[in-house]
């Protein structure tokens, strides 16, 4: 019998973050008291007004196919929202609604990357980018953003990595897994470099509302018309509005790319779930309610961030940077002399604390904590982690 799997299927690795979460959930189901810091998902319910808009849409029979690019009213609302909140002035036709931010990334990569094209991915990176680039036949080129450099890459590093085959740079700000946020000036330099070297940027801004310490998460697409013309902004509703299970992503791209993405979507997913898009429309149209909901979640995240940061840095041998975005901390655990995978396996087995090995994100010296968990879990998890570190 011929091998049933394609080369793509044989070469793809499953998402390690989802795997850690599944393992922690399994232990929990067996009755174990696990402190799970693995999930990249807000621990809040979706705001009621969003749920109600979706329920109303179902009751009104909005349960049929929609245009592939998305509900027209939602694309209009996205254009208005991006102009006002992100400083990105684009027509509704430049916005696409997809089944999840993850799928938006995939569509952006499939629409732009041909076999052999190189894609610069700053490491630590979100787990799915390299796999998606490989699925498109592209070649991921990693540029190391070190702990000491606040987990950010410089133009000099990008210049060293660029070749004639480079097509795209992926930027994630705020970052998963590090929580690092690029400043406007840093983005200005990178965008200028992309213009100069004729490169595209895929800017993953899914955590842009979740920033702390008064910093802003600017978009390269807002910096100049030239930068906008080569930037694909991917985002979604999962993180900001606690809508992970709704599977709703967005993409904002120059004309030709937006059209290609809509065509790709028409031949793959057809459209993101119709009634879910009405919930998203409510989130865009009811700014006051949406802002209140986001502010409430942000307040909790910030409190937990500071508690976790302080707790981690008080453990001998652990060093953690003060990340200013998303809901992750990425402490350095290299002083314990274990690989990040061994560190995480032992921590889960011995102390029932689930965190994700940094190796999954291209940095074996770190582990990722999500602080989208309760204050009690943070306290309990820190006590167990301290016990574990004292023993290793
Ligand atoms: C950096 C980043 N981009 C995109 C996504 C995709 O989110 P979703 O597919 O739930 O919209 C995630 C989710 O973890 C993420 O961390």
Describe the structure in your own words.
The protein has 392 residues and is of the alpha/beta class. It has 14 helices and twelve strands. It has helices spanning 7-11, 16-29, 48-59, 72-86, 101-112, 128-135, 155-161, 184-196, 225-228, 255-266, 274-285, 287-313, 340-351, 375-391, and strands spanning 35-36, 95-98, 118-123, 139-144, 166-172, 200-204, 231-236, 249-252, 328-329, 353-354, 356-357, 367-370. The chain has a seven-stranded mixed beta sheet, with helices on both faces. β3 (118-123), α6 and β4 (139-144) form a beta-alpha-beta unit. α5 (101-112) runs parallel beside α6 (128-135). The protein is globular, with a radius of gyration of 21 Å. The structure holds pyridoxal-5'-phosphate (PLP).
């Amino acid at each position: 019998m011929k091998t049933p799997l394609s080369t793509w299927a044989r070469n793809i690795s499953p998402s390690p973050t989802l795997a850690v979460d599944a393992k922690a959930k399994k232990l929990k189901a067996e009755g174990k008291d696990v402190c799970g810091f693995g999930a990249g998902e807000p621990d809040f319910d979706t705001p009621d007004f969003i749920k109600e808009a979706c329920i109303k849409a179902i009751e009104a029979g909005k349960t049929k196919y929609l245009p592939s690019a998305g509900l027209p009213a939602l694309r209009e609302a996205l254009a208005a929202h991006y102009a006002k909140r992100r400083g990105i002035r684009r027509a509704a036709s430049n916005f696409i609604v997809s089944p999840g931010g993850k799928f938006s990334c995939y569509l952006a990569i499939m629409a732009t990357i041909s076999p052999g094209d190189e894609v610069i991915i700053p490491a630590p990176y979100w787990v799915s980018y390299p796999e998606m680039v490989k699925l498109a036949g592209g070649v991921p080129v990693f540029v190391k953003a070190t702990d000491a450099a606040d987990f950010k890459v410089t133009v000099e590093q990008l210049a060293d990595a660029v070749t004639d085959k480079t097509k795209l740079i992926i930027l994630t700000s705020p970052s998963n897994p590090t929580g690092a946020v690029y400043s406007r000036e840093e983005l200005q330099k990178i965008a200028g470099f992309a213009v100069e070297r004729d490169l595209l940027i895929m800017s993953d801004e899914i955590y842009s509302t979740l920033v702390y310490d008064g910093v802003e998460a600017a978009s390269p697409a807002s910096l100049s018309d030239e930068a906008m013309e080569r930037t694909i902004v991917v985002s979604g509703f999962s993180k900001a509005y606690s809508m992970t299970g709704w599977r709703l992503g967005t993409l904002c791209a120059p004309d030709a790319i937006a059209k290609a993405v809509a065509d790709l979507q028409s031949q793959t997913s057809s459209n993101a779930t119709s009634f879910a898009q009405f919930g998203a429309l409510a989130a865009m149209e009811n700014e006051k309610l949406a802002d209140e909901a986001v502010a409430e979640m942000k307040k909790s995240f910030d409190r937990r961030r500071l508690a976790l940061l302080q707790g981690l840095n008080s453990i001998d041998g652990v060093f953690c940077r003060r990340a200013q975005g998303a809901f992750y901390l990425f402490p350095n655990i290299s002083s314990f002399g274990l690989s990040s995978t061994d560190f995480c396996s032992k921590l889960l087995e011995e102390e029932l604390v689930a965190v994700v090995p940094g190796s999954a994100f291209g940095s074996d010296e770190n582990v990722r904590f999500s602080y989208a968990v309760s204050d009690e879990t943070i306290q309990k998890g820190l006590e167990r982690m301290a016990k574990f570190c004292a023993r290793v």
